[in-house]
UniProtKB/TrEMBL annotation:
Superkingdom classification of source: Bacteria
Alphabetized Pfam families for the sequence: DUF3348
InterPro entries: DUF3348
Organism: Allopusillimonas soli
Name of the protein described by the UniProt record: DUF3348 domain-containing protein
Length: 251
């Protein structure tokens, strides 16, 4: 039976980083630099000029926009619905075509004519992960744009905050996406570790045959670990939305 890795200690930070450190057995040291210094390393001179213009320019005009009686509550409801939808997609509980294809594929490789089937190769998991990343990026970005429009219709101060959020997304979004796109590659080492451990156990520790037909409980372990990583990534991606909703509640 494949055992899940024990929790690593001694490193604090976002849940996504802690999970990746534990699953990939990577030695990561927490940065001692203040957050402002770390952010400055992500911004180039054009980003700095754009942010300075937004922060030091005249107050922007309040934009007209259709608002309900309680925009903060409406935004929070939309946030909850989006989060629930994305969590269900990650856990394979939605009815999207991609999830249905994944279920059919999983059944076809796990239970074929009553015999143990060959394990799923990692590219299938990578494709699933990248597909969910794209879904998160699109839906969260759309909500973020809508919330900025709501803020811009509240007051000059909130309109400036909406411009700052847009400038920060433009300045940091590309770097963030490039880093998050590396996560599937990092998970491949965890996949290989679980596969090799299961193969060793199957053959009594003597030699490895990664292509052999074998039961795949270790892939269930990996699938759960991948879901935890995706949920942790979702938490990070949703932080700007949570910040905009918090700002709306102060209006």
């Amino acid at each position: 039976m494949v055992q899940e890795l024990p929790q690593r200690t001694g490193f604090g930070g976002p849940a996504l980083i802690r999970l990746l450190v534990r699953l990939t057995d990577t030695d990561v040291q927490a940065s001692r630099q203040p957050l402002s210094r770390q952010l400055s390393q992500w911004l180039d001179w054009s980003d700095a000029i754009g942010l300075s213009t937004v922060l030091n320019g005249p107050p922007p005009a309040v934009q007209a926009g259709g608002l309900g009686d309680d925009p903060a509550r409406e935004a929070a409801t939309e946030y909850d619905q989006l989060r629930d939808k994305l969590e269900k997609a990650i856990l394979g509980q939605d009815a999207s075509p991609a999830t249905r294809r994944q279920r059919v594929y999983r059944r076809s490789v796990i239970a074929a004519d009553g015999k143990p089937a060959a394990p799923i190769e990692y590219p299938a998991f990578r494709q699933r992960y990248v597909s969910l990343q794209e879904r998160m990026e699109t839906s969260i970005s759309n909500l973020r744009i809508r919330l900025r429009a709501v803020l811009a219709a509240r007051s000059p101060t909130m309109a400036r905050l909406a411009l700052v959020d847009a400038a920060m997304e433009q300045a940091l979004g590309g770097r963030e996406q490039r880093l998050l796109l590396k996560v599937p590659a990092l998970l491949e080492s965890h996949f290989e570790h679980l596969r090799d451990a299961a193969t060793d156990a199957q053959h009594g520790g003597e030699g490895r045959d990664a292509t052999s037909t074998a039961p795949v409980p270790w892939q269930d372990v990996f699938r759960r670990d991948m879901q935890r990583v995706l949920l942790a990534e979702l938490d990070i991606r949703l932080k700007p939305i949570e910040g905009l909703i918090a700002a709306l509640r102060t209006c």
